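[09:14] KT: can someone run the structure on this one? pasting the chain below
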Amino acid sequence: MYLDSLKNKNIVITGCNKGIGKAALENFAKYGANIFACVRTSNSEFIKFISELKKKYKVKIYIIKLDLSKKSNIIECVNKITEITKNIDVLVNNAGVLFNSLFQMTSEKQLKEIFQINYFSQVYLTQIISRLMSKSKKGNIIFISSTSGLNGDYGRFAYSSSKAAILSLTKTLSKELSNYHIRVNAISPGLTGTDLMQLNTKQGIIKSEIEKISLKRIANTNEIADVIIFLASEKSSYINGQNIIVDGGVL
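[09:31] RB: done, structure tokens below
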């Protein structure tokens, strides 16, 4: 089975204590990968979840504190990982923030804050980890963008811009890192049943958007995680520099 290619691989995932990241974490564990679960905070429920996964799938999972708003903490995070292993096979840049604000009402402070988490911090983390991958002459980097980065959703100027920047970054890195046998791809989910989406999207808007989706429903987090697993596996070995849109088919 092609997913055997994930067995004993070392996976770094950011923002995996909820939503898409948590679903990806569980799927990677299911297929025998060792995971560095990078989260800003963890509670007893998440710690229990990790413990159960380790016991069920006989894998190693390390909870690593990562505050993407602080460059120094990104360095500390990678240092903790490299104390355990120098070999990182897959990096999943999943963590992100979202808020609604019209262009005219978005302050410079707000714009800088969302780009810090959704773009600059991911650039810096990827720079460090890609250097490690380059030494190994192999690696796989996956960014979680958004259809908002393509569509420029109303009232989400800052968020859409940050996600569009990720798509441009993906294209450039896929070319620059290919000489080191490192693949770089992005996934752009449409409406997905995460807490982040539910908290920042009115029910009326969700309902109207569902009418535009050919499958007439929003995605669940496992459906996005399945695409992450595919890109991380050898089954996607000839896919590089691509953005996979997972939106249920917009009419």
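[09:33] KT: thanks! Residues 108-136 form the longest helix (29 residues).
[09:34] RB: yep, looked fine to me
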